[in-house]
């Protein structure tokens, strides 16, 4: 522990009487200043003289009872003389400034002589730094310490020689120490100021380091003292040392002046600050001499013009310039049509994928107040595009082109390339070239009048040296406009509702649809776009609720992507209306009466038919009973069959036998005359089957048939050998009947069908010689 010895001066207050009134002067130490106070009157003026060390100030007359001397730590002693105005008696007091200095981390001993030690009570030692606090209390029996860093050394404890130690000093320990029995003793005169030294803060060099070459630069070494207390530190300015690249300069002032040259960019400047201790050295600062670029340099060095295919890569390239501050170097590329665009924000142009629109890459160096410096890489980009086909000015898609027959068609094939490619157009599958060119990027071909045979695929091909050929195949379909819809009709199926129907026709090739219009005044307004149900199928549409009893006109067009049908189909419809309630009730009554009458009539008709059938059956049975024929029931089944009847024979034999006749309403069938031939199905059941009867049609001699019946070339025989008559209703000129009535040929000798009851037998017929000859 280092002990610092000091001399404590006893404050002497000399009292005088002036005009019988003495002045008592006391002192206080307040934040580095000394305050002198006396017990005078503010109404009185006083002449005051201050002596700082050995320098005495001039007299100063003031109407005050206290006087402050600033920055007392600059002096060893301060004396004051106070005179009452008009009185030459001096009231004098001398204040000795006691200081103890120490470095951070050391220990120090502080001591002073107290005017007295109290017989009773405590003597308190105070520390006034950032705050005022008591640190040691002493009585005759011992000392009480506030912290362990303090050691009280005075013995005996009631000694007026106050001595104590402070260990491991910090900046917080700096300040004013004094003691007494009262709290105001902390500021009273006679105490000791502890000054704690530490290294100044690390300096920072300030100033404009960006200096244009040829101008001067001012650098300032900025540092703060860390010595405490602050009211002492501000009284001791720091000293400075400058260095350039670790070489000490002679300049010791805070500011360094120098003239800037281009080579200063390689020099680093630093400084230190010193109080009692020297600070750490500041960071190095480099003067930044400013100068513009002379030229740009691109590495690797490019050719005057770089030839490259589209899609290939060029670069990387590095662009540099000697300038300070560093130039703002960027890369831009020039679009052949739109100007310049950013390519890189630094001097490094990374690998670039080239396309045809890039004419060049340009390195640009920007420097303040100086024109930009530029260097370019020019490009020649080779490319060959896929063919682009347009049909009648419209771009071709992947679907076949639909065109109308007998119209014109213009084909344009565009193949972009550098250099200009060779372009050819031909029919797919054919080696014949329709047209070609090698001087332009566009090939044109026109078909003035399309025909069906123009339908097919076409190929547009582009070729260029160094590239694979490119081709585009497109299809062409020659179509017609659709047929108009057929049978466009409308009917009202309920009050306020109608249904429209039509028959779809040929769609012309492409898919068709139907446009439905409704007439509003003199205009036709579109109602609906309707889907095609398919050729030959019926389409229908219900337009929804309409005004009852109103007349509407509708129009229907069939359309495909080529055009719409030339003819529009119009239809008129009157929408049915709901009948009034009274009329509907009357109609319902009439309908009910009509239904009842109808039912009664039907019942009567059915009853009449049943009665008539019953009477017919009875009548038939009576007729059968009237025939006296002996029939063997076992050999003649009770079967009724149709048979041909020879009327001429019956006329001759009418009186010899009863012939079973038909009912009055029997149907007659006409056949050619012939022998009596029974129905084949019935003949197989009876035993009286004649030998010349067969199941199939008999073989008839045409000559005999013609001789017997006349010309039968147009007549046909059925399986029973019956010949049906021909009926001609036409009036021919040569046979025109004056009456104008049609004539049935063969009606005079027609064959009639009749019922034959084989359960009965007619009496035997006696054949005459005339019959035998026949």
Task: Describe what you observe in this structure.
- The chain is mainly beta.
- The strands form 15 sheets. Strands 2, 5, 6, 7, 9 and 10 form a 6-stranded antiparallel beta sheet that branches. The protein has a 6-stranded mixed beta sheet with strand order 11-19-18-13-14-15, with no helix packed on it.
- A hairpin with a 3-residue loop joins β13 and β14.
- The model is unreliable at 1-20, 627-644, 647-714, 731-736 and 768-774 (pLDDT under 50).
Instruction: Determine the mean pLDDT.
Output: 79
Number of helices: 6
User: Uncertain spans, ≥5 residues at pLDDT below 50?
Assistant: 1-20, 627-644, 647-714, 731-736, 768-774
Instruction: Quote the beta fraction.
Output: 35-45%
Helix content: under 10%
Radius of gyration: 72 Å
Class from helix and strand fractions = mainly beta
- The termini sit apart by 188 Å
The main β sheet shows up as: 6 strands, antiparallel
Overall 3D form: elongated
According to DSSP, the number of beta strands is 57
């Amino acid at each position: 522990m280092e002990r610092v010895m000091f001399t404590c001066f006893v404050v002497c207050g000399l009292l005088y009487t002036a005009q019988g009134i003495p002045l008592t002067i006391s002192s206080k130490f307040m934040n580095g200043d000394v305050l002198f106070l006396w017990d005078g009157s503010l109404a009185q003026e006083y002449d005051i003289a201050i002596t700082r060390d050995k320098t005495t100030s001039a007299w100063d007359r003031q109407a005050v009872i206290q006087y402050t001397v600033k920055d007392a730590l600059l002096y060893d002693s301060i004396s004051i003389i106070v005179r009452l105005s008009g009185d030459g008696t001096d009231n004098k007091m001398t204040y000795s400034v006691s200081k103890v200095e120490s470095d951070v981390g050391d220990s120090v001993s502080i001591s002073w002589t107290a005017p007295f030690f109290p017989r009773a009570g405590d003597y308190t030692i105070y520390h006034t730094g950032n705050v005022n606090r008591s640190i040691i209390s002493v009585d005759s029996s011992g000392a009480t310490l506030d912290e362990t860093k303090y050691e009280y050394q005075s013995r005996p404890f009631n000694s007026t020689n106050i001595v104590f130690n402070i260990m491991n000093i910090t900046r917080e320990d700096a300040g004013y120490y004094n003691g007494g029995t009262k709290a105001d003793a902390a500021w009273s005169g006679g105490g000791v100021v502890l000054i704690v030294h530490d290294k100044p803060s690390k300096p920072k060099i300030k100033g404009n380091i960006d200096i244009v070459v040829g101008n001067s630069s001012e650098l300032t070494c900025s540092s703060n003292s860390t010595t405490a207390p602050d009211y002492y530190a501000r009284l001791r300015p720091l000293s400075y040392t400058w260095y350039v690249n670790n070489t000490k300069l002679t300049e010791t002032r805070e500011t360094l002046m120098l003239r800037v040259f281009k080579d200063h960019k390689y020099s680093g400047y630093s400084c230190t600050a010193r109080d009692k201790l020297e600070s750490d050295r500041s960071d190095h600062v480099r003067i930044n001499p400013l100068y513009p670029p002379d030229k740009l340099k691109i590495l690797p060095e490019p050719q005057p013009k770089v030839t490259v295919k589209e899609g290939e890569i060029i670069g990387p390239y590095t662009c540099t310039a000697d300038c300070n501050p560093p130039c703002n170097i960027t890369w831009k590329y020039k679009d052949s049509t739109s100007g310049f665009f950013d390519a890189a924000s630094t001097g490094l142009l990374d690998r670039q994928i080239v396309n045809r629109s890039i004419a060049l890459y340009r390195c640009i160096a920007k420097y303040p107040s100086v024109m930009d410096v530029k260097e370019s890489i020019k490009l020649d980009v080779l490319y060959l595009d896929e063919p682009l086909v347009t049909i009648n000015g419209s771009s071709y898609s992947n679907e076949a082109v639909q065109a109308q027959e007998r119209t014109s068609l213009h084909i344009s094939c565009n193949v972009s390339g550098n250099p200009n490619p060779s372009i050819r157009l031909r029919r797919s599958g054919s080696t014949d070239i329709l047209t070609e060119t090698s001087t332009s990027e566009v090939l044109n071909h026109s078909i003035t009048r399309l025909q069906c045979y123009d339908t097919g695929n076409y190929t547009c091909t582009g070729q260029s040296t160094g590239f694979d050929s490119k081709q585009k195949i497109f299809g062409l379909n020659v179509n017609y406009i659709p047929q108009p819809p057929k049978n466009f009709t409308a009917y009202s199926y309920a009050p306020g509702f109608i249904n429209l129907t039509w028959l779809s026709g040929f769609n012309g090739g492409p898919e068709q649809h139907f446009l439905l219009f409704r007439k509003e005044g003199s205009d036709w307004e579109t109602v609906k776009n309707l889907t095609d149900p398919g050729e030959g199928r019926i389409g229908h549409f219900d337009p929804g609720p309409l005004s009852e009893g109103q007349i509407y006109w509708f129009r229907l067009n069939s359309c495909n992507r080529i055009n719409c049908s030339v003819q529009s189909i119009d239809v008129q419809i009157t929408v049915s209306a709901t009948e009034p309630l009274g009329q509907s009730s009357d109609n319902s009554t009439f309908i009910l009466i009509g239904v009842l009458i109808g039912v009664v009539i039907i019942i009567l008709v059915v009853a009449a038919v049943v009665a008539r059938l019953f009477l017919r059956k009875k009548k038939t049975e009576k007729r059968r009973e009237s025939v006296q024929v002996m029939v063997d029931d076992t050999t003649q089944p009770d079967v009724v069959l149709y048979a041909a009847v020879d009327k001429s024979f019956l006329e001759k034999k009418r009186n010899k036998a009863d012939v079973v006749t038909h009912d009055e309403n029997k149907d007659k069938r006409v056949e050619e005359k012939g022998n009596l031939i029974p129905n084949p199905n019935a003949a197989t059941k009876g035993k009286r089957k004649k030998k010349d009867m067969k199941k199939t049609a008999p073989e008839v001699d045409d000559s005999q048939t013609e001789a017997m019946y006349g010309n039968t070339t147009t007549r046909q025989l059925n399986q029973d050998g019956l010949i049906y008559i021909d009926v001609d209703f036409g009036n021919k000129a040569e046979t025109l009947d004056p009456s104008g009535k049609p004539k049935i040929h063969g009606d005079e000798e027609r064959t009639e069908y009749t019922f034959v009851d084989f359960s009965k037998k007619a009496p035997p017929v006696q054949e005459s010689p005339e019959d035998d000859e026949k």
